[in-house]
Amino acid sequence: MTQFADLGLSEILLRALNREGYETPTSIQAQSIPYLLQGRDLLGIAQTGTGKTAAFALPILERFAADRRRPTPFTARALVLAPTRELAAQIADSFRAYGQFMRPSVGVIVGGVSHRPQIEMLSRGLDVLVATPGRLLDHIASGRFKPATTEVLVLDEADHMLDLGFVVPIRQIVAKLSKNRQTLLFSATMPKEIAGLAQDMLNNPAQVSVTPVATTAERVDQHVFLVDGGAKRDVLLELMKDTDVSRAIVFTRTKRGADRVAQHLEAAGVGAEAIHGNKSQNQRIRALDSFRKGRTRVLVATDIAARGIDVDGVTHVVNFELPEVPEAYVHRIGRTARGGASGRAISLCDNGERPLLRQIEKLTRQSLPFTDRRSEDQRRDDAQPRRAQPSNGAGRNASHKHPRREGQHAEARRPGGERQNAQRPARPANGQKRRAHGGGGNRPQSRAPQA
């Protein structure tokens, strides 16, 4: 079995790894580190929780151990781009832990906080700068960060950065870097956009893939509860009564939905906090810290946190709402079963989310086991044969292939599972114009996932 000492790391790093309890490298580490120590560019494909941070942090620190020169003001020798504030902070903590006997200067640049402390930090120069793309571009534009001398660039969770719309900022940042840099691109999935980005940015890269694209963690026990939309909160509370659920992350599609679910759990006596893009950086840090230390049992999050939460001992992930992008399911359930542990992922799927469930099963190439918790009326409605459709399109039923329309005859629901007025306006006689009725009827609007 490969040991960290076999990878060519120096004693100062091996001592830190030993203190942190690292014994043997993971697959992504064992395969990537030798290439990176040679100075090669690298394209790494691996799921979250497989040890990607150490795979790039250790070779960078090894480079600095061999060359201990101080960085010049307003520069960074290594630049790591991350999609979220939480992930950026965790990457920085990892660099500090692995380099604890080297004491590298490590800084974090993210949005949602004051510019002034960041400017003061940059003015001293950094060995490692971990940043989100938007705020970093602000400092580049103001001349407070000069990227031309950066030696190593890392893009972590590159596919998630593209999902969040960071492709243009990333290209703008890369254009200002030296062409002689070493570039590392890590991603959990490999869509066409990532392949194109890798082709543009990487120079003859080594490629490492430790798991098939878009597969789910093998140690995660996955299960689906088919439920009526209005019953989701009751089912969630029932799940939280299980004493085996010692630390859980509940995912919603919207920020408002996350707040509502957290408030509902708190009102029922289940300690919960919400984390999403509308929270300030300090609020997000406090919520994560409380969850990590066990003061809060449940963290309710949107997809922006799906890859930014690295907390040991998460026993359960609950998809209160299925994601509209099926790849997000893989990243959500990857918050449990980390570090060799097992975990459970439970998805609450109402009738309108059945197409989303089919997309997830198609992507992950598996049929998820389910328990039918729907009402007898709902089951009877689903069992009824559909009537033939009029040729002129009048009275057209919703297609079961469209997640926005499926089940709308029964009742329309907000993303948080709350019932809206389900009564449809009377259909006008032929030749008459339909009058405005409320907001134009009760068809639920399709929403892109929000952070």
> How many separate structural domains?
2
N to C succession of SSEs: HHEHEHEHEHEHHEHEEHEHEHEEHEHEH
CATH class of the largest domain: Alpha Beta
Ends: how far apart?
42 Å
Low-pLDDT runs: 388-451
Mean pLDDT, rounded to whole units?
83
How much helix, percentage-wise, in residues? 25-40%
Briefly, what is this?
This protein has 451 residues and is of the alpha/beta class.
Description:
By secondary structure, this protein is of the alpha/beta class. It has two domains: 4-209, Rossmann fold; 220-378, 3-Layer(aba) Sandwich (Rossmann fold), CATH 3.40.50.300. The chain has 15 helices and 14 strands. The strands form two sheets. It has a seven-stranded parallel sheet, sandwiched between helices. α2 (27-37) runs parallel beside α3 and α6 crosses α8. It is globular and about 70 Å long. InterPro entries: DEAD/DEAH_box_helicase_dom (IPR011545), DEAD/DEAH_RhlB (IPR044742), DEAD_box_RNA_helicase (IPR050079), Helicase_ATP-bd (IPR014001), Helicase_C-like (IPR001650), P-loop_NTPase (IPR027417), RNA_helicase_DEAD_Q_motif (IPR014014). Residues 371-385, 405-417 have a biased composition (Basic and acidic residues). It holds the Pfam family Helicase_C.
Features:
single chain, 451 residues, alpha/beta, Rossmann fold, 7-stranded parallel β-sheet, 34% helix, globular
Topology, pairings included?
Layout: H1 11-19, H2 27-37, E1 42-45, H3 52-66, E2 76-81, H4 85-98, E3 106-109, H5 115-123, E4 126-131, H6 133-141, E5 152-155, H7 158-163, H8 167-175, E6 182-187, H9 192-201, E7 206-209, E8 220-226, H10 232-240, E9 248-251, H11 255-267, E10 272-275, H12 281-292, E11 298-301, E12 316-319, H13 326-333, E13 343-349, H14 354-364, E14 370-372, H15 376-383
Parallel strand pairs: 1-6, 1-7, 2-4, 2-5, 3-4, 5-6, 8-13, 8-14, 9-11, 9-12, 10-11, 12-13
Helix pairs in contact: 2-3, 3-4, 6-8, 13-14
